[in-house]
Design goal:
This protein is mainly α and 298 residues long. It folds into two domains: 67 residues; 191 residues, f41 fragment of flagellin, N-terminal domain (Up-down Bundle). The protein is 71% helix and 7% strand. The strands form three sheets. It has a two-stranded antiparallel sheet. A two-stranded antiparallel ribbon has the order 3-4. Strands 5-6 form a two-stranded antiparallel ribbon. Helix 2 packs antiparallel against helix 3, helix 2 runs parallel beside helix 4 and helix 3 runs antiparallel to helix 4. The protein starts with 5 loop residues before the first helix and ends with a helix.
């Protein structure tokens, strides 16, 4: 009587299982376009992919930081642009106040300027996402405090912010402050005080007083223009860092694809070869494992 050898049977079964597993893996590669599903599929490539993914995650954090920095910078730009409009209007009133105007007109300009002072104080105490943008690293409280007279008019402002500006990491070895500098912040306070001086000059109706208040406003106007230019340069740098991060991220995506993507044409050839070998193994295995009743009778 012929009985199949146990070792031979197990050997064939093991071969069939390996071919079946390889066939399933190749089918999955063809279906998904990926060649790595488990670290054991390619340990070396898996290690590289993990490193690439870690760098991609860091770049994504840089991108989020860059978006926040740009939003802060845009908010700062908007506030200072509003101050520039206030400065322009105050300068016009200063020129008009030097001319021959009646007391009623002078008082009208003074009243309008008082409203502009209130608007200016609101803008220099502006915030983004709950953080004061003109207070340096001290972002949790209003950076400018105002003194008022018995009638509620602002008589002076004082800078109570920090002497340093916060910085944000927007790239590898690249940090930037999207806020205005503490020096600029102090100058913005001086601008409000110069507006107050012009308001008082217009209230008095004296030409000499208005003339005396004009140089301070002109200095503030130059400083505001300088702040606008600085913010523009900051935004340009943020955009440049973001562009570099996006380019690096795309490069990392390509490198990851090279490690993980399957060669579709080559994978299909391997799948066909494996399927042929699998069918052949099944046929051979069926012959080896076949035990008929006749074999036992014999």
């Amino acid at each position: 009587m012929r009985i199949p050898d146990l070792y031979t049977s197990q050997s064939f079964l093991g071969q069939i299982q390996r071919l079946s597993g390889r066939q399933a893996n190749l089918q999955q590669q063809v279906a998904t376009g990926q060649r790595i599903f488990r670290p054991s599929d390619d340990p070396a490539a898996t290690g590289k992919v993990l490193e690439l993914q870690a760098e991609k995650q860091q770049i994504q954090q840089y991108a989020r930081n860059g978006e926040r920095a740009l939003a802060i910078s845009q908010t700062t730009y908007s506030a200072i642009s509003d101050l520039k409009k206030i400065s322009d209007r105050a300068g016009e009133m200063g020129v008009l106040g030097v001319g021959v105007i009646d007391p009623a007109s002078s008082q009208g300009y003074s009243t309008e300027l008082n409203q502009l002072i209130e608007q200016g104080l609101q803008r220099i105490n502006a915030s983004y996402a709950g953080e004061r943008i003109f207070g340096g690293t001290k972002t949790d409280t209003e950076p400018f405090t105002a003194a008022r007279d018995a009638n509620g008019k602002i008589t002076g402002v004082t800078y109570a912010g920090a002497a340093d500006a916060p910085r944000i990491n927007v790239g590898e070895n690249s940090t930037i402050s999207p806020y205005s500098s503490p020096t600029t912040n102090q100058q913005l306070g001086d601008f409000i005080n110069n507006l107050i001086a012009m308001r008082e000059a217009l209230t008095s109706g004296g030409t000499a007083a208005v003339q005396a208040a004009q140089p301070g406003l002109r200095t503030s106007e130059d400083q505001i223009l300088g702040a606008v230019s600085d913010i523009g340069a900051t935004q340009t740098r943020i955009e440049g860092d973001r562009a570099q991060s996006e380019a690096r991220f795309s490069e990392l995506e390509n490198l990851t694809s090279k490690e993980t993507d399957a060669d579709l044409s080559g994978t299909i050839v391997k799948l066909t070869q494996t399927q042929t070998a699998y069918q052949a193994a099944l046929q051979v295995g069926a012959q080896v494992m076949r035990v008929s009743l006749l074999d036992y009778v014999r």
